[in-house]
Write a structure and sequence with these properties.
CATH superfamily of the largest domain: Conserved hypothetical protein from pyrococcus furiosus pfu- 392566-001, ParB domain
Strand content: 5-15%
CATH topology of the largest domain: Conserved hypothetical protein from pyrococcus furiosus pfu- 392566-001, ParB domain
Oligomer: single chain
CATH class of the largest domain: Alpha Beta
Number of domains: 3
Shape: elongated
Radius of gyration: 27 Å
Largest sheet: 5 strands, mixed
Distance between the termini: 75 Å
CATH architecture of the largest domain: Alpha-Beta Complex
Strand order of the largest sheet: 1-5-3-4-2
Length: about 300
């Protein structure tokens, strides 16, 4: 039977297995919660259980690390939902609340799952999946983030900003002997800088360091021309991708297949760690050759004029 009480926040402490990174709970990261507390009070109770043998604290909180910080910061009572919970029940309740609130980061969740296994509350990833009613592959995917080396995590000003997809990409580079050291060296150089970079910039630096010379992002389309100055295609830099823009009236099915094969061959070479500068030159030369050949062939077949400059 649950009861809700207003408690002195200084008589409450967080459970050792709570899933927040304490170092990143502060006035700056809790600014929105502080404003909400001041304007509307505490809207959602934290979850806790009593501590009968503890002389310093009355309640152990399962959830609500940020709300506890705010209550202490403002010196206001903390609304606590008190329940009788075993450790495994508490873990499930904590994960369920945070998934519903959608405010726990993938990296924090990965550390939590890893702690659950180390502490013996669950014997396997499958046990966690069954208890949380999620797929084993989802648990496995999240757990992978806990394998990120400390130096990579520390490169981010706030590890809670590490996205799941970023973690997967970085781990793939770290598992490759040819790219691991470059990525780790870049992480150390980022940490050494006095000014911390935004998370997306850190990720871009780490990933590009493992791929060779950094590709300069162009603000405008790059027009690739043939020997006679005719515009063959354009290269457009987007946030996380590069698009090749081909004139539709010059591209038939055979042309597109040839260009796709040429680009795929270059990218396969890149994954095999061929020198990056040679790859860039080879890529542009190969695509230009394909586009030029395709343009001649398609003009001959369809009577189409060259692409406008």
């Amino acid at each position: 039977m649950a009861t809700i009480k207003l408690m002195n926040p200084f008589r409450c402490r967080m459970w050792a297995l709570h899933d927040r990174l304490d170092a990143h709970i502060n006035e700056s990261t809790c600014r929105a919660e502080i404003a909400s507390f001041e304007g509307h009070g505490q809207l959602v109770a934290v979850l806790g259980r009593t501590l009968p043998g503890d002389t310093d604290h009355d309640v152990e909180l399962i959830t609500g690390a940020r709300r506890l910080f705010v209550a202490r910061h403002l010196n206001k009572p903390l609304m606590v939902e008190l329940r009788t919970l075993g450790d495994q029940e508490a873990l499930i309740a904590m994960d369920t609340e945070n998934r519903l609130r959608k405010d726990i980061s993938p990296y924090e969740r990965a550390l939590s799952y890893a702690r659950w296994l180390r502490s013996g509350f669950f014997k396997s990833q499958d046990d966690i999946a069954r208890a949380l009613k999620v797929s084993p592959s989802q648990v496995s995917r999240i757990l992978r983030l806990a394998q990120l080396p400390a130096v990579v995590v520390q490169a981010f000003a706030n590890p809670t900003e590490i996205r799941e997809a970023w973690g997967r990409s970085l781990l793939a580079k770290l598992e490759d002997r040819a790219t691991r050291q470059a990525l780790l060296d870049t992480a150390r150089s980022v940490i050494a800088k006095p000014a911390r970079l935004p998370a997306h910039e850190v990720y871009r630096k780490l990933l590009s360091s493992a791929q060779g010379r950094k590709l300069k992002i162009q603000r405008h389309d790059v027009v690739v021309r043939g020997a006679d100055g005719t515009a063959l295609f354009r290269i457009r830099h987007q946030r996380d991708t590069i698009a090749l823009l081909l004139p539709l009236d010059h591209v038939g099915e055979r042309t597109l297949r040839d260009i796709s094969d040429a680009v795929a061959a270059v990218l396969r070479g890149a994954s095999a760690q061929v020198d990056d500068s040679r790859l860039i030159a080879r890529s542009k030369l190969e695509v230009k050759r394909m586009a030029r050949r395709a343009g001649k062939r398609d003009r001959g077949e369809n009577g189409v004029q060259p692409a406008p400059t």
